[in-house]
Amino acid sequence: MKTISSRIVGLLYCLVCIACLSACAEKEEPAPDPEKMITGKKWRLTAATTDPSFPTANGGTSSNLYNILKDCFKDNYEEFREGGVYIYDEGTTRCNTGDAQTEQGNWIMNTEKTKITISSAGGNANTYDDVEVTETSLKYTFVTTLDNSGTIYTVSVTAAPVP
User: Fold this and answer.
1) How many domains does the chain have?
2) CATH code for the domain of 133
3) How far apart are alpha carbons 38 and 80 in whole angstroms?
């Protein structure tokens, strides 16, 4: 009888130990919320590429869209404010002095946090796919035509917080 009792006590002791170890194990931190990480920062374009490559003025092709942008575009930034307010700012160097310094619209992420839709004050809306947000980068893609050829390009964008 003592043998069965000691086995039960031993088994209970093992179960208690396992339960304690499980309770003490490191808990996984919840994944950061992209919607929270995107707000509170001004995001400036740092890279833009296309697939397929597009024809250049010198007769070649390139997939590096950022390299051919005028400098007046490279200092622009966008803000995703809490409450869904979107701001696009021309930066210190405007390409056209007649353009407004800032444009305001609205933004929203889908429930999976993989798409951002930005609506302008005029009602036009664009959806950006494959959204990835970290503390130091914002990445997304969109599909467009860049020229009159009818070719459809996938543009991949990377932005970083303005220091």
Assistant:
1) 1
2) 2.40.128.540
3) 6
